[in-house]
Design brief:
Blueprint: H1 2-16, H2 18-22, E1 31-39, E2 42-52, E3 56-57, E4 68-74, E5 84-85, E6 98-101, E7 110-111, H3 121-124, E8 127-129, E9 150-152, E10 174-176, E11 198-200, E12 223-225, E13 246-248, H4 259-262, E14 270-272, E15 294-296, E16 319-321, E17 343-345, E18 367-369, E19 390-396, H5 403-409, E20 415-424, H6 435-439, E21 443-451, H7 470-473, H8 491-538, H9 547-550, H10 558-564, E22 576-578, E23 583-584, E24 591-593
Parallel strand pairs: 2-4, 3-5, 4-6, 5-7, 6-8, 8-9, 9-10, 10-11, 11-12, 12-13, 13-14, 14-15, 15-16, 16-17, 17-18, 18-19, 19-20, 20-21
Antiparallel strand pairs: 1-2, 22-23, 22-24
Amino acid sequence: MVLGGLFLFCASLLVAVPSICQGACSINPYCSDCANYTEEGQTKWRFYCNPYNEYFIDHSHFTATNDTVDLFQVSSFSPSSTLTINSGAFQNIPNIIRVDIRNTLGSSPSIDWWAFYYGGVENSLRTLLFRNSYLTTVPSVLSYLTALQELDLAGNRITGDPSNYLSYLTSLRSLWLDNNYLLSSIPSSLQRLTYLRKLSLRSCNLNQSSVTSFGNLPSSLEWLDVYNNRLYEIPLGIGLLQNLTYLNMKYCNLNSLSDNVFLNLKKLEILDLSRNPSVVSTLNVLANQKSLRILRLSQISLSLTDIPDAISGMEKLIELDLSYNGIRELNHGQFVKLVQLRKLSLDHNKIASLERMSFQNFGHLEELDLSYNLIHEVTPILFVPQSIKNLNLEGNKFETFDKCTVANLQAYLQNSYISSNLFNCDCRLAWVRKLSASFGSRVSFSGSCYLPRELYGQSLSSYPLDGCTSEDESFESCNIVRTPEASFVNSAQISGIKKDLDIVQTFTTVSVSVAVVALLAFVATIAMLLTCFFKRRNRVPSNGRSRGHVNQGLQLSEAAQGERAPECRSSGDSLYQNTDGTASRGPSADYEPLRNTCGVANNTEAPL
């Protein structure tokens, strides 16, 4: 009974999955493998015909089905013949979505005009890939594929589109023309592709004479790759692409950057200008690219010795690549606004030391690459943001490395790589032997001895530890911080401290301002009171008061006048007789001048 049941079970497997057991595709025997699956209640197929066991593709090869065919892929054919795609080749599988035909082994395929017609294929096909198929011109079959959204003609020998077949692809979103080394200008037919979003022209034959053809690019473009074309200048046509979010101009031999181009690229998020050494003097043009999220300036020039000032205001940057330049130092002030940065590549520069708290503003930084610089010492405080997960310090100039620094860095790092060939192999590095046992594969520490001379070239893991103690080898003496909350000074704490300092500074400024205003008000009040006091004291009484009061304190008695008469007043001591019979030195409202008591004329001295 048991053997009979087992036999029936095996037989049912053979019937259920004949294509797997036989290694062939039941729906197309010329295809080496296929698979079907159910999605949302529909059966879908994928054909993997590598190789295709025939030199042509014909509709008779397929069992007719209305099931959706997600993919028909062929990457190689019989090497003895040229691939031919016959008329109506896919009419028995009309609901085909993606056709991938590549690597036709040195010969251009023969594609019938109606190869993708009949049965409704022309309305269902969304993706057509003819990469590395030795095509010399744009296939004519494209003229009726108006529903096509992605076309890959990369790696061929296409020189252009003289018949404007591309202009019929009115639904096209993505076009790959890269590695067509005979393509020397951008086809004018692209102007009509109003839905085109992505265009790759990598490693073509575009040059300085091709610059004007960039005016053929549709304004709908959001993604443009012209890597490895000798353009020498940024075409003005690129500046008209106001929807552009991605631009790759790496290795284009650019002489300079132009304000006229970048002024209109307000939506640009990803920019690669690597390997253009002559642009180093015009990098400030990028200062207004506030929307950038990824900036790659690798291999610009050894003359780039400082972080470009244009970067300091790019607050949205999440990735910055400045590798393979001549940068010598890091200035914390240049990174103040880059609080969103997640990946920073500074490898292969000439950085010898790191400013204390160099990366304190990078609260989101996850990857930091400082490999192959001239750094000789590292302390944990240099890596303040605990968000860092991957740290690369390979190929630097370390002579030794503090074990507690390594231990504390592992409190929040997922991976770290440290190496040098200048180590002084003594007991300070004895802990390297126990590194793996303590932290597993999360940290890679390697290198060789430079000193003492008798150990030159020996590996860190094998040099003799003569005179070293067990304490030298262990991490027990280190105060290892295990939780991120307790680890060093984190960015949140620094941010809080800065906010507190800002509040204190603001309060102090306001207090000083209030004190100064109060002091000025007090001085003004005192000055006003003194002014009033002296005015009141020196004021001549008015005529409206009693005559006795008006002349109070100013009356001169006859006796006083008599006493002074012998002295003969000077001409300046003229007396005035008031209407009430009294005398005063200053005239009142009613007065009569007195006669000179010395018997001489006024303004004349008495004779001796």
